[in-house]
């Protein structure tokens, strides 16, 4: 399911390495330790939400791993030189990813702004100061027409113009003296230019190629795949399945472009990226999150997700006519398991959107999604973001709602 499709589904709402056993025990211990402490959700009247959907920004992304929280808490008590910190964390991240250079950004959208800016300005201080205005010709960024998406506004934030193309020939013919970069949206449903063709054309004309793969782990291999293809710049979200700080992201690739991106970012005082600063705790946290993600037992994690699907399926199928079905999204974004739930509408007088609304309005508040299976709208229960203690709770709540609507 693409990000824009998820947003459409959510419009139906009124609003809207350690092993897993260690993670579960750490989460349980953390919950026990905080049970008697100040509850800011309660104090501020903010409703805690169970996320049985996806890693959506409006739902605060994902839950940070215990290692990330430890990194944040352990570094909050001292100051750091932010230039040094970004350089040294970036070097460690580049080492982990096997690339030339890397940096921590305030999410993948910021990475697109900074990457675009880097290809326009290089290290020229005059050009950096000018963004997003220009004294000369307007820079251009090539994108496939089918790759246009909500987040490409990050490109035009730099003042660059997006030039749409279809097919390799049109892409090649669109390249001119004003072309700064070519951007590939990895989660696009269709591509008229393949990854390999895209990179080859960009290299032939000596223009940087950038791939936005924000939500495209798992699989973990994707962190290495696109640089092997030859993309010059790559971004992933830090606050999605890597489970780092929600406001952090990764930008990595060619060293000269990463150095130019840094010059367009905080802690430099005037560039376009200054309002997109990342604090020191988030930089340390992103480092810890990536390290944890790379060390994780991904096969074990996947099996745990499948077990969650089976557990919820066994609960909801106790209601007559209700059927649960494993669905594994093919990707490239959000490529993980979830549970499709359907039922006989003659026996249960409720639609999938109505169940989603009831879940959200209930206590606890649960956000689930709607999917299309054939011509039918079905309930889509995501399992990858649930805490271990929430799995049965979600199943029981769905079961209760459907039971109450039996004809």
CATH class of the largest domain: Alpha Beta
**Overall structural domain count:** 2
Distance between the termini: 32 Å
Q: Strand order, biggest sheet?
A: 2-8-7-6-5-3-4
Assembly state here? single chain
Mean pLDDT: 92
The number of helical segments is 16
The stretches of 5 or more residues where confidence is low (pLDDT under 50) are 1-25
Shape: globular
Strand tally: 13
Strand content: 15-25%
Tell me what the structure shows:
With 407 residues, this protein is of the alpha/beta class. It has 16 helices and 13 strands. The strands form 3 sheets. A 7-stranded mixed beta sheet has the order 2-8-7-6-5-3-4, sandwiched between helices.
Concise description?
This protein is an alpha/beta fold. It has helices at residues 3-10, 20-34, 40-44, 66-74, 82-97, 108-121, 125-130, 153-156, 167-174, 195-204, 222-229, 255-263, 280-295, 298-316, 352-361, 391-403, and strands spanning 49-51, 101-105, 140-144, 161-165, 179-185, 209-212, 233-237, 249-253, 323-328, 337-342, 365-367, 369-373, 376-382. The chain is 42% helix and 16% strand.
């Amino acid at each position: 399911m693409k990000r824009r499709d998820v947003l459409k589904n959510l419009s139906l709402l009124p609003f809207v390495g350690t092993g897993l056993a260690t993670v579960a025990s750490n989460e349980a211990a953390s919950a026990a330790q905080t049970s008697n402490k100040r509850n800011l959700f309660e104090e501020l009247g903010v409703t805690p939400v169970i996320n049985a959907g996806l890693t959506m920004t409006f739902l605060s992304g994902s839950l940070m791993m215990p290692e990330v929280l430890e990194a944040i808490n352990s570094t909050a008590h001292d100051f750091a030189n932010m230039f040094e910190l970004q350089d040294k964390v970036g070097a460690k991240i580049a080492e982990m990813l096997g690339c030339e250079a890397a940096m921590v950004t305030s999410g993948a959208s910021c990475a697109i702004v900074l990457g675009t800016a880097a290809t326009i300005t290089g290290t020229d201080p005059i050009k950096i100061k000018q963004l997003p205005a220009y004294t000369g010709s307007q820079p251009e960024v090539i994108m496939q027409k089918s790759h246009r998406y909500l987040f490409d506004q990050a490109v035009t934030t730099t003042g660059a113009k997006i030039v749409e193309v279809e097919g390799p020939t049109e892409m090649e013919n669109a390249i001119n003296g004003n072309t700064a970069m070519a951007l590939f949206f990895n989660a696009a449903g269709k591509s008229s230019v393949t990854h390999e063709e895209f990179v080859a054309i960009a290299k032939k004309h000596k223009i940087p190629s950038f791939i936005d793969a924000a939500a495209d782990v798992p699989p973990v291999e994707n962190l290495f795949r696109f640089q092997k293809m030859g993309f010059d710049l790559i971004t992933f979200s830090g606050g999605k399945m890597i489970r780092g700080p929600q406001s952090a992201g990764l930008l990595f690739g060619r060293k000269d472009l990463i150095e130019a991106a840094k010059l367009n970012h905080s802690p430099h005082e005037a560039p376009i990226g200054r309002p997109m600063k990342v604090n020191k705790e988030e930089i340390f946290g992103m480092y810890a999150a990536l390290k944890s993600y790379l060390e994780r037992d991904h096969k074990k994690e996947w099996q745990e997700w499948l077990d969650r699907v089976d557990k919820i399926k066994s609960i909801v199928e106790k209601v007559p006519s209700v059927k649960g079905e494993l669905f594994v999204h093919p990707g490239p974004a959000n490529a993980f398991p979830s549970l499709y739930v359907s039922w006989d509408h003659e026996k249960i007088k409720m639609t999938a959107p109505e169940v989603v609304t009831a879940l959200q309005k209930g206590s606890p508040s649960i956000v689930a999604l709607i999917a299309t299976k054939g011509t039918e709208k079905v309930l889509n229960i995501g399992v990858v973001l649930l805490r271990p203690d929430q799995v049965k709770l979600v199943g029981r709540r769905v079961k209760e709602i459907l039971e109450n609507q039996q004809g």
